[in-house]
């Protein structure tokens, strides 16, 4: 069977893709041996990531070429703004994150870089461009989280972060998102496909660097 557009994007993003999806940070998270300080720092920065990520989902919603796609995207927006948001609030309580760090933490350079990629794609990108960045953010998370052992970490903050990213609804969403980029990507000319590839590669490096910034090893 021939490669889909997203298979091609991913292959052309190696070795960064593998570095982002089998990082020592996620290996430790899955094994239940990630230090609480590392998880706290990561989640504080990730909450800032989620702000721009949500705006990027909104950009996809606005730029989509059909109503059925808008419905799929709005389902994902509902998850980010409900179960994922309450997860952050509970995790911040459990990890004793200060009010200042919940709202206005000092941003790590890896957060700044990822946010500016998302904000720029939101402001200037086409629908396929936006999808390219979203696909990396969601597919890479699905991939590491699917490596979860049968016995999840006892720590509920770690366990829940894993299941948020490998549950059947999330698997279905990532499958849809990839299919959507395969659909609209097939219509692009070579120049526009190359721009999607550059965005995909940039987002993959951002994912790798985000984990590296919080890995104490
Ligand atoms: C950095 C990052 N990338 C992706 C995801 C999954 N939406 C996330 N929560 N954080």
Automatic annotation (TrEMBL):
Q: Where does substrate bind?
A: 46, 84, 138
The record's InterPro entries line, in alphabetical order, gives: Haem_Oase-like_multi-hlx, TenA_E, Thiaminase-2/PQQC, Thiamine_Salvage_TenA
Under Gene Ontology molecular function, one entry of this record is: thiaminase activity
- One term under GO cellular component: cytosol
The record's catalysed reaction(s) read: thiamine + H2O = 5-(2-hydroxyethyl)-4-methylthiazole + 4-amino-5-hydroxymethyl-2-methylpyrimidine + H(+); 4-amino-5-aminomethyl-2-methylpyrimidine + H2O = 4-amino-5-hydroxymethyl-2-methylpyrimidine + NH4(+)
Which SUPFAM superfamilies is this protein grouped with? Heme oxygenase-like
Q: What is its EC number?
A: 3.5.99.2
Q: Which residues form the Thiaminase-2/PQQC domain?
A: 12-213
Q: Name one GO biological process term.
A: thiamine biosynthetic process
Domain of life of the source = Bacteria
Which biological pathway? Cofactor biosynthesis; thiamine diphosphate biosynthesis
* Active-site residue numbers: 207 (proton donor)
* Enzyme class per UniProt: hydrolase
Q: Which UniProt keywords apply?
A: Hydrolase, Thiamine biosynthesis
Q: Which family does it belong to?
A: Belongs to the TenA family.
**What's this protein's function?**
Catalyzes an amino-pyrimidine hydrolysis reaction at the C5' of the pyrimidine moiety of thiamine compounds, a reaction that is part of a thiamine salvage pathway. Thus, catalyzes the conversion of 4-amino-5-aminomethyl-2-methylpyrimidine to 4-amino-5-hydroxymethyl-2-methylpyrimidine (HMP).
Q: Write the protein's name.
A: Aminopyrimidine aminohydrolase
Q: Which organism is it from?
A: Saccharopolyspora montiporae
């Amino acid at each position: 069977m021939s490669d889909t557009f997203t298979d091609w994007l991913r292959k052309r993003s190696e070795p960064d893709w593998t570095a982002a999806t089998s990082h020592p940070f996620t290996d430790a998270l899955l094994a239940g041996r990630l230090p609480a300080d590392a998880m706290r720092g990561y989640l504080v920065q990730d909450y800032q990531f989620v702000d721009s990520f949500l705006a990027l989902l909104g950009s996809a919603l606005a730029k989509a070429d059909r109503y059925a796609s808008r419905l799929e995207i709005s389902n994902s927006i509902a998850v980010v703004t409900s179960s994922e948001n309450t997860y952050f609030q509970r995790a911040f309580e459990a990890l004793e994150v200060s009010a200042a760090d919940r709202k206005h933490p000092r941003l790590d350079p890896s957060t700044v870089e990822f946010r500016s990629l998302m904000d720029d794609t939101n402001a200037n990108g086409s629908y396929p461009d936006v999808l390219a960045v979203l696909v990396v953010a969601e597919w890479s998370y699905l991939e590491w989280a699917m490596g979860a052992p049968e016995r999840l970490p006892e720590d509920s903050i770690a366990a829940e972060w894993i299941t948020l990213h490998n549950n059947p609804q999330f698997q279905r969403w990532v499958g849809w998102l990839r299919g959507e980029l395969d659909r609209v990507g097939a219509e692009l000319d070579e120049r526009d496909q190359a721009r999607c590839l550059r965005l995909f590669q940039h987002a993959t490096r951002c994912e790798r660097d985000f984990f590296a910034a919080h890995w104490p090893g």
